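re: that complex we talked abt at group meeting.

here r the seqs, copy pasted straight from the sheet so there may be weird spacing, ignore it
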Amino acid sequence: MAEVIIFGLMALPALAGGVTVVLARNPVYGAMGLLGSMLALGVLYVAQLAHFIAAIHVVVYAGAVMTLFLFVIMLIGVDRADDQNERLPRQRQLVILGVLGIVATAFAVAFSGRFSWVIAATGERIPQATNGTTVALARVLFSDWVLAFEATALLLTIGSAGAIALASRRGKPVDLPIDPEVTS
Amino acid sequence: MTFEIDYLALAPELVVAGTIIAALLLDLFLTRSKKYWVAVLSVVGVAGGLVPIVYMLAEGGTRSMFDGSYVVDEFALILKIVFLVSGYLVLLMSVSYIEADRYYQGEYYFLLLSSILGSLVMSSSRDLIVLFIGLELTTGPLFLLAGWRKGDAKSNEASLKFFILGVLSTAILLYGMSLLFGLTGSVEFTAIAAAIPDLVSEPALALSVLFLIVGFAFKASAVPFHFWAPDTYEGAPTPVAAYLSVNSKAAGFVAMLIVMYTALPGISEVWAPALWVLAALSMTVGNLSALRQGNIVRLLAYSSIAQAGFMLVPFAAAAVAGSDLAQAFSATVVYLVIYALMNLGAFAVVIAGARRTGSGDIDDWAGLGQKDPVLGLLTALFFLSLAGIPPLAGWYAKFVMFASVIEAGGISTLVLAAIAAVNSVIAFYYYARVIKAVWLDTPSEELLARPGREYAGSIKLTLAISMGLTIAIGIYPTFATYFGEASRVIATGGG
Amino acid sequence: MIVTAGWYMGLAAILFAIGALGILIRRNALVMFMCVELMLNAVNLTLISAGRELGTLDGQVSVFFVLVVAAAEVVVGLAILVSVFRNRATASVDELAELSG
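got the structure back, here u go
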C-alpha cells in the first residue's frame, strides 16, 4: 500500500514536469520542470530498491546535468523567451497528429497484449539480486561489465576534451585567427 | 562467474587505446608547427592495431570473454580490419586538410581515434550494453568533429542537426533495448534469441524491434531517417564527411545486422519487411535526390545513402524469403568492404579536387582533367567503380548482391532485385555526370589560371592505397570473397 | 493493491511519448535536447522496473551506462550549442537555414 501512495505522489510531478518541458515558453521553466521530473523519478527508483542508481541519478542528472543546462541557458541568454512567437505550420500539425495517433496505437497494442511478466507478475522477487546497493552493483560493474566501464571513461574524456576544443573562444569569434602561443 | 581477460583478444583495442592516450599527451608538448607528429603517431597506432588481428586470423578460433558478451571470432576480426583500414585512410586524408584549416589538430586525432576504438568494441559486442557503448563511442566524437570548423556557420549547423537527431535516435534505440530486455529478461544476444520463441505473439516485442530498427536506421542514415546526412556531410570537414559516410554508417549498419541476426532471428517476420522497405526506399530516394545535386559532397552523401540501400538488399531479401541468412551476411560484408575502399577514394578525390579548383560545385570542376590529368583519371576511376563498371571493384559488389538475391528466390525478393537494377542505372547517370564535367567540359579561365600546387604526400598515399585496392579487388575478387566467407563464421562459431 | 512493474512501465511510456512530442513541436535546440533527456529518463525507469521484476541487476547496470552516456552527451551537446551561439544569436533550429534543401 505504501508503494501505491509513493507511486501516486511521485508519478504526478514526474508527468507534470515532463509536460512543463514541452509546453513552457521559457526554457528556464522547462529546465525546472525537467529537474522536478527527475527528482520524482529518483524517489521511484528508491521505491524499486535501486538505491545506488537513485543516488547517482540525483547527483549526476538533477545536480550536474541540470545545473549545466541552466548555466548554458543563462550564458546564451535564451531566458528572454525569444521563441514566444513559435508558430506551428499546418503540415507540422498534421505530422504531429499522425505521429500521436501512431504512438497511441502502438502503446495500446503493446499494453493490451499479454505482456505477461508485467501484468501478471506477483510478488515472487529475489531481493538479494535486485537490491541495488553500492556493493552489489560494484561487484557486477567491475567484473562482467568492466570493459564497458572503461569505455565510458573514454566517453567522458571525449566530452571534456571536445568541449574545450569546440567551445573555447580565441580572439574574434568568427574569423578564428591563428594563435601560435596557446596549444591546449 | 569466471572473470578472466584475454589480453590477446583485446590487443587491437588496447593498441588503439594506447595510441589515444599517447596522442593526447604528445599534443601537449608540441608547438603548432609540429602538430603533424600527432597525426603520424595516430596513423602508426592504427596500423599497429592490425598486427594482432592478422595474428589472430592466422591462428583461427573464437575467443570469448565476459560470459560470451564479448566475442572475437572471424566475423568480428574482419569487421575490425574494415574499420581500422578505413580509419587509417581517413586519418591520412585528414593530415593536410586539418593542417591547412588552422583549427585544433591534436584533439581532432584524439576524437577520430576514439571513434575508431568505438567501432572496434562494437564489432565484438554480443550484448546490448556493450553494443550500445560501442556505438556511442563511435558516434559521440563525430558530433564534435562535424562542427570542427567552428568559425563556419555551416559547420555549426551541421553539427547541431547531427547532434539533435543523433541523441534522439539514441533515445529511441535505448527504449527499444529496454523493452527487449524487459521482455526477454536478458541483455545477451544468445539468451535473447533463446527467449524469443515464447514471446512471438507479444505485440510489445514487435514494438521494441521497430524501435531498434528506427534507432539503427538513423545511425546508418537509411531513408526515411536520412535527412540529416547531406547537410551534415556538406557542413562537416571533408575527411569527417568521408568518415561519416563509411565508418559511422557501417557501424550503425553492422550493429543492426548483428542484433537482427544473432538476437532476433526468431522474429524475422517483423523486421524483414521493415528492412525490405528501408532498402527499397534508401536506393530510390538516395539516387533520385543525388540526380539533382550540384555540390559534389552532397552528391556523394546521397550516393552513400543509396549505396547503404544496396548493402541492405541481400540481407533483407534473404530474410523476407526465409533463406540462408549466413549467405546474405557474407554478401553484405563483401559489399561493405568494397564500398568502404571506393567511397574513401572518392572523398580523397574530392579533397584534392577542391584544393585544385577551390570549389565543391561540380560545374566548377569542368575541365579538371585537362588541368590535372592524374586527378581526372582518379575521379573517373572511383566514380566508375561506385557505378559498378568492371573491371573496378564496384562491379563485384553489385554482382555478389544480385547473385545472393537471385539465390534467395521468391516474388518479393525479385521485386527488390528489379528496384536495385533500375537504381544501378540511375546511379550510373549521376556518376557519369561528374566524369563528363571533369573530362569533356571546357575548363574555365579561372581554373586554368590557378597555380598548380603540389599535393601533400599523405593525400597521395590515400589515393594510391584506395586506387590499388579498388583495381586489385576488381581483377581478383577472391580477395574480397575471403572477407565474405570469413564473416560467415558468426553463424557457426559466435552466434 | 500492489504496484506492479506495469505501472512503472506505463508511466515510462507516457514520459517517453511526452518527450517525443516535445521533439516534434518545439524548435528550440535546448528544449529539444531537454526532451531527449526526458526520453532517456523514461528508458531508465523502464530498465529499473524490468530489472526488479526479473530479479536481475542487469537493468540497473544498464541504467548506470545510460546515465554516463547521457552525461557525456550533455557536455558534447552544450559545447556544440555554445559554439553555434558564438556565430549566431539564436537557438531556433528553423532560423539555421544555411544548409536548407
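couple things i noticed - The CA atoms of residues 61 and 93 of chain C lie 35 Å apart. Helices of chain C lie at 5-25, 29-54, 58-87.
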